[in-house]
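Reading a protein record of the kind used here takes only a little practice. The record below shows the convention in full.

——
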Amino acid sequence: MSNVGLPLSRGIPSLMSVIRHHVRTIVVATVVFVGFAGFYLVSAQPTYTSSSLILLTPVPGNPLSPENASGNGSQLAVAMDTEAHLLPSTAVSKAVSEDLGRTTPGVNEVLDVTVPSNTQMLEITYTAGSPERAEAGAQGFADAYLDYRSKRATSGQESRVKELRRQVDDVERDLRRATSQASGEDSSASQETPLLASRLAQLGEDLSEAESVSTNPGSVINPASEVTESNELPRWILVAAAILLGALTGLVIALVREWRRDLVRNAEVGEPGLPAWSTVVASDTGPLVRVRGPAEHEAYRSLRAAVVANAPGPRVLGVTSIGKNVATAVATNLAVVLAEADHSVLLVAPGLEGSMVERAMGHPPRHGLVEILEEHLDPRQSVESVEDGVSVLVGGQDLVESSDLLSSPAFRAMIEDLRRDFDYVLVDAGVAGSADGDALLLVTDSAMVAVPTETTTRAQLQSALARFDQLGIRALGSVRVDPGGPGRP
């Protein structure tokens, strides 16, 4: 049976996993955004806007003259657009500045003029750094522009009346001359008299009309509005938005980091073709699980139940790990809990030195593989019983020499001979992918993979399973090794 199921493609990590493993990233991003928001709130000056609305009336001497006001729609639109562009002119701005006693518009102050659709009105909006300046600006430009239009209309009317009166005086003088000549029987003068009289009458009508034309420029319909709030959003909204954006940005960064790292997590289910039997806590060579705490002991008891169910004895079971060597701790503690269930267990650990076994089991063995294979000793006499139901066979004093012996037929024959005496022969194969580890796994019936979580990538696990397939090694399941779970010594 193949060890490799479906390809371990990178999927989208779960949200809870991302938050749990990247809290610091999310917090840092949130703090940065809140910091920027705080800097903006401290450095940015609030602005206030007030508006006023004026209604213009057609007056002579202005774009919106009586002729344009009575014309077609496009003429009126052009006239109103011209009026809107005249309002912020230098002449009006100068008048407002003199009236308010300051330059208007000032630094960071904005004047805007718009024409409401299909109206003869101008809407003035003025933005400044204080409510008072905004209101004064909006009202000042409304009043100053109406005064400007009034003066232009009055000046135009006076010029028109003056010109008409001059023409009236000229025509009256000519009419008196023509009348005098007509009395002297001058035929040409008698013909000119009616024309001059008609011209004088027309000028009189024009003069009366010019004197009666209104110079009212319009009126302020809506005075400058009272400003109660600044244009900016409330501070609490900006802070809340910064927190939200920071958290979302941090979450996105954490999601990308988690996806790129592609680590095996202890909360995940088993990979395709390789079920996770249990999650235990890493403890390289420290005390046994029953000494460290009930939580770790229970985790190994769960692992024992899975091993017994999926690999019933008698069985030669290899224990290997990915990336870092946690196989020794797993194999040692698994041997202990199997023995607690009255299974006879032999732990074959060629990489173990006496001091390590002494720390783990409390009893250093005297002989190892080197002595057994080189001196042709009976392995049953060299196997050390260090726990009730647990025996250990280590590499011996010369670990380099024992490494060369792992691939020998004598080693395979020795394992086959010893398996008849034990329910389980656990082989500590160390890190997967090494030459010694492969040689050890080849003498087993099946293997269990110890996966250090938070450091092992899914790609590493997939690569190890593919190598097992090439060598004909059958991996039954995995045990997740948590580097820092509850009960860690």
